[in-house]
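Hi V.,

You were right to ask for the full record rather than a summary. Here it is.
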Amino acid sequence: MGVVGGGQLARMMQPPAVALGLRLRVLATDPDDAAAQVTAHVAVGDHRDVTAVTSFARDVDVLTFDHEHVPQQILEKLEADGVPVRPGSAALAHAQDKALMRERLTSLGVPCPAWRVVADAGELAAFGDDAGWPVVVKTPRGGYDGKGVAVVRSPDDPALDRVAGWWRETGPLLAEELVDFRRELAVLVARSPSGQAAAWPVAETVQRDGVCREVTAPAPDLDPELAADAVRIGLRIAGELDVTGVLAVELFETAPAPGRPAGVLVNELAMRPHNSGHWTIDGAVTSQFEQHLRAVLDLPLGDPRPRERWSVMVNVLGGEHPDLYRSYLHVMARDPGVKVHLYGKGVRPGRKVGHVTVCGDDLEALRARARHAADFVAGVIDE
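Predicted structure:
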């Protein structure tokens, strides 16, 4: 199994690969990348270098990814050379290009925010007048964790200076309505080449400064019909786009609005294991990482059901405290039920360097325990 990308997602594929008897190979950009630290077979190269990627692919039976940034022309060459690429280039294009994703989902009738591709300030102003101000502007490619996203509140908002730079660098941008949502949700599904599919419970996600901070699964107080609708949307997208592996669909849960009932709107897609599914390592019968490997290899999929009533995952974000391991003693002694996962990454402010998960029956107590553990590991608190 070859994984392009040496980040924490590839790192977390290694334990289930060992359990399944697979040999994982990783193409990392640096020998000290998170996955390279724990994987026996590591190649070092740039995922944008056709020679590096094609050379790496010659030594694997199937190729998958821990990010969506491999250029389309490289993916298409791999497929032309007969390499099983999962998910394939046609599917990944919709995770790489947000404008293409919006166009395809709209054609399928999947509920999305109002959107338009805009090439200049005049087109953006026209969209804002139609959809209502403020609006969200995104670079179609490359943005994640809040990067490449700006809220523009009026046609003369100073934020347009930054947006103008994006137009010069990347060309047309994606403009969307600023959705008035109740909360953010995520549905994760897995799909194999033969069409078998499975879904985990819909989770609630909490973002801070564009970065996922906390996930609760299943989403508390979610109407069962709305949850079923979210799962149906995830499974339909996976099937229509011919996704292989794990697909994460990030959603807005919306209140009723003129011309639109309460429901969910698709925000973004990721075709790989996703931060909103890290709770499954400790909280589900089959984790998203094991399921991704099963799906990519067209093995029978595992049981996605939760092991406990609730699972709460909180990300550990880097701060001023560089030695994360010194905090283990306190966290483990204070609360042996907390599961701590660190990624072997250098600490810098705001960077995802790990996560903690707790599972059980008392949701508010679980949230308090997980938040305390994450803050202590990060050095935010010291008692």
